[in-house]
Structures are given as C-alpha cells and as structure tokens.
Design brief:
Largest interface: A-B, 35 and 35 residues
Largest sheet of chain A: 4 strands, antiparallel
Number of strands of chain A: 4
Structural class of chain A: alpha+beta
Shape of chain A: globular
CATH architecture of chain A: 2-Layer Sandwich
Oligomer: homodimer
Distance between the termini of chain A: 15 Å
Strand order of the largest sheet of chain A: 2-3-1-4
Amino acid sequence: MVKLIALYKHPQNKEEFDQHYFETHAPMTSKIPGLRKMVVTRITGSPMGGEGKYYLMCEMYYDSHDALKAAMKSDEGRASGKDAMSFAGDLITMMIGEELNQE
Amino acid sequence: MVKLIALYKHPQNKEEFDQHYFETHAPMTSKIPGLRKMVVTRITGSPMGGEGKYYLMCEMYYDSHDALKAAMKSDEGRASGKDAMSFAGDLITMMIGEELNQE
C-alpha cells in the first residue's frame, strides 16, 4: 500500500498541539476521500535515551499513488493540508512511501 | 502496540545500501525474539515535490515496552543494532512509539 507519512517535531506547547491535533486536525483528515486507514503514533522516546527529535507520526493509507494524489487535491485534502500548515507548519515533515513487506 | 521505528536518510550509494539492508540487515533483524511484525517502507518522495530527506523506514512491532527492551538486550537485538551502526550509523534516526488508534 501507499502511505502518506506526517512526522511532527516536538511542539513548544504539547497540550495546545494535542488539543488541536486530536479534536480538529485528525477528524478533518479522517474525512479525506480514498483514505483507507489512519494510524497515529505517539513517539515516547529513543532507544539511545532522551526524547528525540520527533513527537508524533501519522500514517495515512491509500490504495495507490493516484488515489493519494486525488485525495490531496480534494476539498477535504486541501482543508487538512491548510490546517496542518497553520498549526504545525514549522514542525511537520511529509513523506510518501510504499510498504514493501510485512513479516 | 509498541513499535521501534528506524528512519534512514538517503545513502550515498543506494545500491550498496539496499543490498546490505535487504540481504543482511533485515534478515538479521527479523530474528530478534519478541518481534511481532516488521514493516519496511520505501520513501518515494514528498507531497511538496523532491525526494525529501529520508529514504527508508522500518517499523518493528512488539507487545509492550518491556518486550522491546528485552529484545534490544538480546544477542540478536545487539547484533542487529551493531550492524545498523556499522553500515548506516550516520543515516539512522531511531524512535520508540505507541500506536494510538487505527481508523
């Protein structure tokens, strides 16, 4: 499957971030047409110790690259992207990936 | 579930990296006791265009933080960690995460 990965660095105010993320951004994103599955991972630390650079990861699954492209161009996709930029534009790294295998 | 996430930046020599990763490192990692699932994702780009910073992601699932700790201390876990540092020490970012939900 194809997935869009959003990786967020630690926000200055975690409480404000979480409130906006879980109450506004995630519900908005979950409405994007073609989205098959959405998995949110809270980063709790690093095996080397310390909290590390990243705070949260969201993986959004689509059937294909074309489905992902269509999703990002949809009204819901644009609204979610605009919202992400407004509350976390300086924190977010976006990637597109293909899962190769599951063992 | 708890997952250990390894995120690799683009290697200088992708062919050498892939060969070592898929023929040596991944098989070694898949033998770590307690590992429930291992998902490798090839990063194909960024929605903003360009190839982005990262090349590959591996997600390794465990039942709990304790199971993950035990896995990293096992002989197989130490061997995998040592191998990762030797072929990709300057490329790798490691994170521990908790999946919050699946929609």
